[in-house]
Amino acid sequence: MLTLRLALRSLANRRLTTILTIVSIALSVALLVGVETVRRGVRESFAGTIRGTDLIVGARGSGQQLLMSSIFGLGSAAGTLTWETYERWAAHPAVEWTIPISLGDSYYGYRVVGTTEAFLEHYRFRNDGRPTVAQGTWVSSDRDVVLGSEVAERRQLHVGDEIALTHGLRGTGILDHEEHPFRVGGILAPTFTPIDRSLYVALEGIEAMHAGWENGVPPASALPSLVMPGAESPPATGPPPAPTPAPQVTGDTDHAGHDHQLTAFLLGTKNRFESLRLQREINTDTAEPLTAILPAVSLTELWHSIGFAEDGARLISAAVLLVGLLGMLVSLYSTLQERRREMAILRSLGAGPGRIAALLVFESGVLSVLGVVLGVGLTYLVLLVGGGIAERHFGLFIPVTPPGTLEWAYMGGVVVAGLVVGLVPAWRAYRHALQDGLAIRL
Amino acid sequence: MTSAAPAVDLEDLRFRYRRGPEVLDIPALRVPAGRTVFLHGPSGSGKTTLLGVIAGVLLPTGGTARVLGRDLGGLPPGARDAFRGTELGYLFQLFNLLPWLSVEENVTLPVQLHPARRSRLAGETPRDAARGLLTRLGLAGLWDRPVAELSVGQQQRVAAARALIGRPSLVIADEPTSALDTDRRDAFLELLFEECSAAGATLLFVSHDLGLGARFDERLSLPELNRVPVTA
């Protein structure tokens, strides 16, 4: 292809402008593809926050609120549900497993989650990722706390350290459970999910530290701790004790843990197809008003409600690309005047105006293709090198995957846009070729 | 080529640029085939425009322009481009070469662009043809040089080699010696005559320098042929 060869030689001759143009296109492509990849990564990481759980059940209220509080540790739950209700649904024939969750305490802003070993066994994130204890052991007594990796790192905690948890979700110091300190029993491996920012204690631990806090304030005197079934120590004694009379929660309505109150529970069904029917059944429970949500559906809804941010990022990267393409237009266009001599020579050699126009379109095509290739290469380089940094500093896990359909569409689109932009100087050169004849304009 | 048809035959030729005044009004101009013809014209007499018409880059706005027996006005644009590329060699006053190609690549460009011109190499490869011409023009060994490293005289000889490759029927030269000093000019003209004669090409040489005319077979004067007066 002679025209392409000539275009390449001509570009090589204007090396500096050529390189600068390619770099500017590459940077815009890198930004565009990078934003797309990060967006997809964030989305996948977001959608992968919880997997394998078929329903999340909490007190009657907004589904989004339930999802945010139970999974992301944001905001408060609408209310609590009783241990009886939990047991009743846990025993439902369609239910295979459950993970009870009791929230309401914190440690330097990190959520404390009261749960059972079922969490370790059944909780899943991303592609079959499961929480694992990296150091120490899982909660084995009501004085044990297991830390998410970020909590341990930021608070400089190690296995064996003693900490006092805080009643409520904010601050420390005023309502610390100092009379019931916890010992760090284990530290979880990083998951890049909200697990990393949580602390896990046994439900009994929650009970124990709230002994006497029924009014939401510290007890006048310590009460004996209640022990729940399934706990290994202290030894369980028979069936769960009957709930104490209706909790008198004042002010701190999101606070569970008192008197066998749960914030929520996650459940897995024996047969996935039962999920919808079970959801309806739970939502219409007459004994206690409950809300059951399908995590995947709620996650998607939540993502869409914050989707304007990703549109903004896309818009900005598209604008940057436009600037890059305009830069190419300027650099090609500005050389036209000095290249009129070149065009006259080609004309004298029998090149038609169309061929001269094609030469310029090819030049812009070469610039865009090289820009795209370099840009995509740059993106992957940054992802491979910088991926670890994003994980460490932002808890953001960006999977490095080969370009998806959208990325390919972007790349093709940039090349096409480059060719279209090249048509402008090409048209100009075509006009010159017809007007100038063989006069060499200097 | 048919030696009977004149290389250039203009009749009642008129030309004007779009919306501009008439530049050429030539009742008759004839360049016999196989001769060296000197066309004298001071600057502003429409030399370059006339050469554009003869090369088929510009279309006459009136009359007929026959080149090598072909009426250029009757050819579609693509055919005119191909005709020029195949049958003509063109030499500019200065800056004849594409700066981003080597010496040899510049010379072989016409045969690369037009298969018909390549077929006139009579079995020679473009590279051998180019090197043969360059050697005869005293440029042996400079094949891969960037053209910017050559002197002006060398550049004009490279341009001559490019105009002559593939034995064109008509070589048009637009003041190719104006940038050369007297010694180099004479040597260049000698080479050009020799090579045109070897290729069997008609040479139409345009210059404002009347002193060169004596060496040519025929001399024509553009101000006498063109009815449009010379503009300052």
Structure in words:
The complex is a heterodimer of chains A (442) and B (232). With 442 residues, chain A is α+β, with helices and mostly antiparallel strands. In chain A, helix 2 (15-47) packs antiparallel against helix 10. Chain A has 13 helices and 13 strands. In chain A, strands 1, 3, 4, 5, 6, 7, 8, 9, 10, 12 and 13 form an eleven-stranded mixed sheet that branches. Chain A has two domains: 2-46 and 308-436, no CATH class; 55-293, no CATH class. Chain B has helices spanning 47-54, 77-87, 103-113, 115-119, 126-136, 152-164, 182-199, 222-225; strands spanning 8-16, 22-31, 36-40, 62-67, 70-71, 88-91, 170-174, 202-207, 218-221. The model of chain B has no long low-confidence stretch (mean pLDDT 87). Chain B has a single domain, classed as Rossmann fold (3-Layer(aba) Sandwich), CATH 3.40.50.300. With 232 residues, chain B is an alpha/beta fold. Chain B is globular and about 50 Å long. Helix content of chain B is 35%, strand content 22%. In chain B, strand 1 (8-16) and strand 2 (22-31) form a beta hairpin. The interface between A and B is medium-sized, with 25 and 38 residues.
